[in-house]
UniProtKB/TrEMBL annotation:
Alphabetical UniProt keywords: DNA-binding, Transcription, Transcription regulation
Domain of life: Bacteria
InterPro entries with a match to the protein in the record: LysR_HTH_N, LysR_subst-bd, WH-like_DNA-bd_sf, WH_DNA-bd_sf
Protein name: DNA-binding transcriptional regulator, LysR family
One cellular component (GO) term of this entry: protein-DNA complex
Organism: Friedmanniella luteola
One Pfam family linked to the record: LysR_substrate
Length: 300
């Protein structure tokens, strides 16, 4: 099983150095373990690729079989915990900032009936295509992606939909468009915009606005910190796209959210998990309560 797990980690993390850092072992120790596995099995499991290592077809097949073995063990443990009637264990949850603000307080409230379950939370805000890699380090990863693009290939992960959050245009309350029932891309394309870095879901929606309006977007400031964006908009330093449910809970005075028309603008919030971690009972409890909390957020 130890050999299988090493191959799986190498498959998911891409380099022996990354695996060594994750497992708190030295690369040389893992290299010796790989050599021992190859001698034992009688086939090459890795091959040199530039300065690193790449799994052979045999190594890839064994790495994938490790998922099934780990999942079966997790399911057996979950069955035993259900038999005993006690959900115990630690669940590591990673959230991007605004999802944590939106979901984590209510999630903790919902988990109070399970005192044996310890939820550890961490902030992880990365480009939308990079969330999947975080599932190697966390039991549950709350990710977001723009809903106007196809989902990335994530055949090695369990994907649990949580909610769709519309993106509204945030305007200063004294802006000429602030009293509108809605705005179009053509209405707002000429504004000074405050936006997150490229490849974040909100920025992709902003690119779609530019494409629909047929003109470039003028970005005057970039930040991933939504509360800062809200304050800047409220004080008249630009306009922004902001997630509706997250922003409406604490929008500062002087900021107005106006729906965007003629363009599908939103982000999908999902939970990403390795299959064996999804099989753990305590993890399933967390995911079930995440789904419930997301449903309560969306409900009017």
């Amino acid at each position: 099983m130890e050999h299988l797990e090493l191959l799986r980690e190498l498959h998911d993390r891409g380099s022996l150095a990354a695996v060594a850092a994750a497992l708190h072992k030295t690369p040389s120790a893992l290299s010796q373990q790989l050599k021992a596995a190859q001698r034992e099995l009688g086939v090459p499991l890795v091959a040199r690729s530039g300065r690193g290592l790449q799994l052979t077809d045999a190594g890839t097949a064994l790495a994938r079989s490790a998922v099934g073995v780990a999942t079966a063990l997790a399911e057996a443990e979950a069955s035993w915990q259900r038999f005993q009637g006690s959900a115990t264990g630690t669940v590591r949850l990673a959230c991007f900032h605004s999802a944590g603000e939106l979901l984590v307080p209510g999630l903790l409230d919902r988990l109070r009936p399970h005192p044996g379950l310890v939820l550890e939370t961490s902030d992880e805000d990365v480009a939308q295509d990079d969330f999947g890699a975080l599932a190697a380090d966390y039991d549950v990863v709350v990710a977001h992606r723009s809903d106007d693009v196809a989902a990335p290939a994530r055949e090695d992960l369990v994907v649990v939909p949580l909610l769709r959050e519309p993106m509204d245009v945030a305007l200063p309350a004294d802006h000429p468009l602030a009293t509108r029932a809605h705005v179009t891309p053509a209405d707002v394309i000429g504004e000074d915009w405050i936006a997150p870095p490229a490849e974040f879901p909100i920025d992709r929606v902003l690119s779609a606005i530019a494409a629909r309006a047929g003109a470039p977007v003028r970005v005057v400031r970039r930040t991933t910190h939504l509360p800062l964006t809200e304050l800047l908009v409220a004080r008249g330093h630009g306009v922004a796209l902001l997630p509706r449910y997250t922003t409406r809970e604490h929008a500062p005075a002087g900021l107005v959210l106006v729906p965007l028309r003629d363009l599908r603008a939103g982000r999908l919030v999902e939970a990403l998990l390795r299959p064996d971690r999804h099989a753990r009972w305590v993890v399933r409890l967390v995911v079930d309560e995440l789904v419930a909390e997301a449903g309560a957020v969306v409900a009017p």
